[in-house]
Give the backbone structure.
Amino acid sequence: MARAGCDLIALALVLAVGCRSPEPATAPERPAPAAFAQRALQDNGAWQALADLVAVAPRRLTGSEGAERAVQWAAERFRAQGADEVRLEPVRVPRWVRGEASAAIVGEAGDEPLSVLALGGSVATPEEGILAEVVMVRSFDELRAQPERARGRIVFFNRPMPRALANTFQAYSEAVPQRGSGAIEASKAGGVAALVRSLTTQIDDFPHTGSLHYEEGVDRVPAAAISTLDAEMLAARLLRGERVVVRLRLSCATLADVVSHNVVAELRGRELPDEVVLIGAHLDAWDVGHGAQDDGAGCAHVLEAMRLIRALGLRPRRTIRAVLFINEENGLRGAHAYAERYAKELGRHFAAIESDRGGGPPVGFDCNAGGDKLAAIRAVVHELRALDCGAFVPVPGGAGGADIGVLRPAGVTLMSLITNTQRYFDYHHSERDLLATIHERELALGAAALAFVASSLAELDQR
Amino acid sequence: MARAGCDLIALALVLAVGCRSPEPATAPERPAPAAFAQRALQDNGAWQALADLVAVAPRRLTGSEGAERAVQWAAERFRAQGADEVRLEPVRVPRWVRGEASAAIVGEAGDEPLSVLALGGSVATPEEGILAEVVMVRSFDELRAQPERARGRIVFFNRPMPRALANTFQAYSEAVPQRGSGAIEASKAGGVAALVRSLTTQIDDFPHTGSLHYEEGVDRVPAAAISTLDAEMLAARLLRGERVVVRLRLSCATLADVVSHNVVAELRGRELPDEVVLIGAHLDAWDVGHGAQDDGAGCAHVLEAMRLIRALGLRPRRTIRAVLFINEENGLRGAHAYAERYAKELGRHFAAIESDRGGGPPVGFDCNAGGDKLAAIRAVVHELRALDCGAFVPVPGGAGGADIGVLRPAGVTLMSLITNTQRYFDYHHSERDLLATIHERELALGAAALAFVASSLAELDQR
């Protein structure tokens, strides 16, 4: 009963869309969001896809055997679902292997182990480890102001993800520089390694990994993530004035590049096959947990959206192209390969929509379009209010995820599926990123929302 | 970054509210939704309240000792938070006790136990149980069409909650009549007991309880909920033509009424203390699980909303009255007692807002108001779009939850906090309704949304 009002709103919006972008008389009627949701919830295909993916390739870091199994699996699944064409597009990718990681506070009473994970891309320590005193900083400015404190030390970056921000991605973006550039800044200050507080608002004992960068001309020092629980403990001891000495051992390594693939599947457009609505996610995942949220959920959204569009008997005017990118987590090589391969066609990409915010309940879409196109897309997204996921967030500069972000310079209209991410960073890049954190109905509704928007945009009369 | 657009929308809406309902120059500035969210997320008070409630009174069925502990606890907590006044308002309530429940398929190979729970309010079976053949129906119409099938049998109502509906409350409302009235319909058809498929879209082994009704002049037969897993198994055997005999034993009982209380706490209005914005939830819970979702979360929303409003230094124009009702689950006596006690003041209730949809991420509010008042309330709710929970659902007939629904005949404007409930019915009325199902950030944002809307409505110039 509570939805009756929403249906009226949705109806009004359908009419509004009609006024804004009149369809030719021959255009088939677009199904309502509820039709997508019903099919998605009834068949539970997104959940089945995700459960299958994490069974086939629970660990699928770029360049690994698991990643190749995931590539083959995805192609087969698209074929089995009846895509018009499925292609494996070669991408030269980096290969980093985690090896072992350990850290401990070294004291008179014996070693006290710390929960750590190497940051992706880190160099190894010497085999015997690095033994050094720890110095804590909360920001790069603090470190730069007193670089002598860091000389010969392990620099402990302890800036928490600010828990008071309702937008968890904003909180993440405020704290993530210490992970991405902490090793560079530590090295510039004379430090011998970096320990980085895990990026999560929870206080628990799971370290969260993620990629780091090095800078040409700056010595590469090893870097590891430390759990928030151990970060709090370390901080408390350091703030009491205790001298804390830590031994850090990492045996990670960067091997030679290998060839992997983006997986591309198409539903050819009925009238404008050269115009493309891209829906994408990334197939690789960090090699802790099973990447169920990041980005198995996105892959399931994309696979299921393609299945739903066919299951509802649709063949929209434009081509819908599903792309499961490789190497989002540590290189974006898949995204760059796509941008190069299709450079001449990007002008005919009507929109590129990414799902890389986990399997939580869908909230809506963001979009970087302007003018009439923005209005038309907004009207489509607003129809989803009937499913409580019709929020529309215009972000002129910055919509979209990391993979489709590579298409920004080409002027492609970028969108991303926004989910509720209050729980997301509890799991992100850690051993907790498992299937059990995802609810089948929330995942199904995300796929339904993506299928509705992609197929509706592929049908719009708007240029 | 993705929120920049939303902030603009929120700003536009603030301006729109300003145009619609100009405040006198002396009215204090209302804090933005983000201010409530920041405080709620930083302090984590809603989670602390809920954790405390389920520790103090994990089982708090109306009339039980646990319910009385919950009443005293809530009053103390409101006082400790600095409410202007806290009252315990007596309510004569029913007292039903669950006793033991067991059921088993009785066959040559021995008993096969079934997962069952007595429905709330059920009469007991004889001590030796009821031994009868089972007949399955999917609807009352099917039962009424062939009542002879039910004579002397245990009637098994096996209508699933339709999983394809995106709105879980709508799915619930389609299946709930078999729980509420199954015992009546079984008895009218000559049946000796009712077994009712649990109301959840999950297939698992947890029975979900809930209240039933009896009808004057119709023999009262015992009724129990059966887990969906066992319901599926029973159905498969019956559809194969197997004769299934079940022994059902329930030792539940209805005792004499006792006196319990609604807990009422007020923040007195600055200018219009006799006008009331009511925020409510229910303190009682079924005696399985800990009622963390139903409705511990609502109690935590209400307690925390009152704390947040004070913490932000607000004293709105109208009185904000928190009411934690007793006996929502099996009688609504608390709601009726409130309606009687305040009968003469209901005309000065600006709105009554209920939270009884669990602790999931807040989505928005529904509302049964019309005209200018609807527009003013809608504008306030839309400000919450900055937090992705500004959905506004006008439902002229039916807004609000069960407790405040009792105020409908008096013409009170009713609203309820809508949360995302895709997971809710996995836990509802079962042993799974535990604190661990609730996420502290989702709960905090629900409290922030409630605090923002209640304090804003209490400040509006609108009559």
